[in-house]
Amino acid sequence: MSLIYTVFNTIFHFEDGYAQFSGNEDKVTLSISQWIQENYDYANIIMVIFIAGWGLLLLYFVTQEWQIK
User: Fold this and answer.
1) CB contact at 8 A, 44 and 2
2) How far apart are alpha carbons 54 and 69 in whole angstroms?
């Protein structure tokens, strides 16, 4: 769903106030949060890569008939 949002946001250039961060966090946490907010497209692509990798790993274990609990 967020990938579809990213495509529409890239095409139509609308901005949504989806996250608000205050300066109370760590400098590292704040900088990562700001990067995600400024580069939402790339953050979604990175997230999809990790989710797909996890799904492929689980699929591999299921096809090898190993138990994951």
Assistant:
1) yes
2) 15
Express each pLDDT in 33-53 by its tens digit: 888 888 888 888 899 999 999
Segment 49-68 mean pLDDT: 85
The pTM score is 0.52
The Cα–Cα gap between 48 and 5 comes to 13
For 36, the token pair is 């995600």
Kindly report each contact of residues 26-31 with a partner whose C-beta sits within 8 Å and lies 24 or more positions away, as own/partner. none
